Amino acid sequence: MALADAFLAPLGLAALLAVVPIVVLYLVQPDPRRVELPTLRLLLDDAERDASNPLLERLRRSLLLVLQLLVVVALALALAGPYVSVSESQTVEETVIVLDGSASMGVQTDGGTRFTAAVAAAREATTGTNAVVFAGRESRIVLRSGGGDEVARTLDELAVVDTPTDLGAAVSQAASIAGENARIVVLSDFADDTGWTGAVRSARARDLQVDLRQFAGGGAANVGIVDRSFTGSNATLSVKNFGDAAVTRSVTLGNQRRSVTLGPGDLERVSLAVPAGGGRARLSPGDDFPTDDAAYVAAPADPTVDVLLLTNDRNRYLATALSVIDEVDLTVDQPPTTVADGYDVIVYSNLDPERLLRSNVAAGRDVIEAGGGVAVVAQPSPPDRLGDLLLLAPSGVASNPSVGRVTTGELTRGIDFPPPERYLTGTLRAGTPLVRTGDGTPLVATQQRGAGRVLYYGTVVGDDPFRFNYQYPVFWKRATFYLAGRDPLPTLNRETGGRLRFANETSVETPDGTVSARLVPLDRVGFYATGGRRIGVSLYSEAESDVAAQSLDARDDGTGVTSREEERRVPRPLTPFVALGALLVAVGELAYLRRRGDL
């Protein structure tokens, strides 16, 4: 066996040469002066007759020499770095646990879920020093350094989220905090086929141990709702079969029921009317992954928007744009008239100033106070009676401007406003301009007034090229919902993984309880409510619903990622133990000298 097979630095054994001068000094040192006592002579004669080799007998009797030789030998061995070969896993001092908390980890299996099984395994994977990275909606370090008790308390506070996650980002984050002699333990179902493989290869390239432990029980016959769309007051749900056998499912929403038969991998769309106030669409029977068996559909309690168009010269383009909105119940009337109560929106357009009654304007103010809205369309001579309902203080009419800055918002997003032929000039009394001409004159402006809203549209009726554009009805549909304080169905229904943002700290009722914050993550499926607004949040992720993950041991996709590292043998240095032995022998030598009286 070569010295390198037992020592990290064999050159350190050269220190053994120090044994030679120590032995030589003991051999050449003069004998002590002998004094013969008659009473002991007989005994000494017998001892001399028994000694076959006086030199060896001298060395044997010199305990001090033996102790000094042992110290030198131990120090020489320590300098040489003795070691034994052990499995690399036995040298781990730090463990970084990556725990997958994505929606698919909520699949039910063996009396629990994949997540509960992964948490149990995480408790058993701890070493002396540990860190925990949680892969939820975003990966985050929930414990940077702690022992087994700290890990247990941290795991108790974690729960699966109903969102997709980026497992690769979590592995990369774990590698960034892992020390030199650390391992990374990834606990996941690995339902995402390739998103994490690059991060694992990168960590292993840094010579970090990466142990992949898969929890993929259950979910083999999953059927889920993977998408939704809205047309008017109808919701279309996409249902997909991820199993290997044909299945039949019932889809219910309110008092409606539809039955669909799906072959392996089939996707079917089911359209259902959204009931007032919304509801929960469900698949029955359910399966091992209940998260995608339901879709939470939010809708206004009163789905109809009652709109009154007050005009003395009917603008058929505007009237048509309003009438084609499924949710709008449009009434067109001419002043002077009596305005009944109950309208959500009143639009003033092409008015005869002499025929507009004070009560007609007062009706608009009442609508605003009740939480509705008023829109005023520009005309060459707007009635003074409108007062502050007209956000612009008019100064005249101009023509053929260029369109300047357009503020991106719910009303203007994705809409191209053409330059008007004629428009009303002036300065804004109040509100926020959304569309302006090149010289800064507002063409579209809005104002939040108490519980209600006001909108100004500055292009003169009859000289508005936008009325011929296919986006014209889109704009007025958005404007109507904005003025009525109604969010359209796509706005009220979100996918998990997003956030609700508020200008100020707001109390929001979530599926997990009430929170007060300016930013509320949508991590759980269910309804989120604040004030009179309710938002439905569902998974809607085809990738996350595909919960049947391939076994890591059966992977053959060219990624080069295996479930565990190949078992490697690494040296475990014994230097501290040998040095400790040398120290103990040196202490023994001192004790012997003291006992002999030399100290």
Which short descriptors sum up this protein?
VWF_A, vWFA_dom_sf, VWA domain-containing protein, Immunoglobulin-like, transmembrane, 599 residues, five-stranded mixed beta sheet, 25% helix, Rossmann fold, transmembrane helix, 14 helices
Task: Outline the structure in words.
There is one protein chain. With 599 residues, the protein is α/β, with parallel strands linked by helices. It folds into 5 domains: 10-42 and 52-81 and 574-596, no CATH class; 89-218, Rossmann fold, CATH 3.40.50; 224-301, Immunoglobulin-like, CATH 2.60.40; 305-484, Class I glutamine amidotransferase (GATase) domain (Rossmann fold, 3-Layer(aba) Sandwich), CATH 3.40.50.880; 489-538, no CATH class. The chain has 14 helices and 31 strands. The strands form 9 sheets. An 8-stranded mixed beta sheet has the order 17-16-18-19-25-24-23-21, with helices on both faces. Helix 8 links the parallel strand 7 and strand 8. The chain is elongated, with a radius of gyration of 42 Å. The model has no long low-confidence stretch (mean pLDDT 86).
